[in-house]
Structure of Hemerythrin HHE cation binding domain-containing protein:
Amino acid sequence: MSTDAIVLLKEDHKEMRRLFKAFQDAEEGPANQRQKLVNQILEALTVHTYLENEVMYPEVRRLLPDLEDDILESYEEHHVADVLCAELASMDASDERFNAKTTVLIENVTHHVEEEEEEWFPKVRDALGRKQLQEIGEKMIALRADAPRTPTEPKAIKKAMDAMTA
């Protein structure tokens, strides 16, 4: 298994895309199936954004100050996702806005992922050596076990509040 931070984040992105497609395929299906998929999406996003906000973004910001604008934009995109995740966590799949809110979350996250993979990751990979990306990845792996799993956990709420006050 690779410890390269970008490889790890791309693996998370791949899993999110799989969950997004599964939700879209089940959009007209039973509420309990949609609820289960959204719960999986919320967990994947909560862990992923936590690792990026706690490790990847601060490290890249420190090592590559020229990318500060990209990182600030990413923090804001995470904040939008955090708000949507928190709202979805308190909703039931039978709510008339559940599918619409999930679709907006998917669209926002998909945009963010595409920007990272097409624009931001190549800049980071070009500027940082393999060793630095592996060190960042190792920090992310170490933190993953303690990352919040739901948007309502205290660590996740703190992350969202930090984004509002930054």
User: Anything to note?
Assistant: Residues 127 and 146 are 29 Å apart (CA to CA).
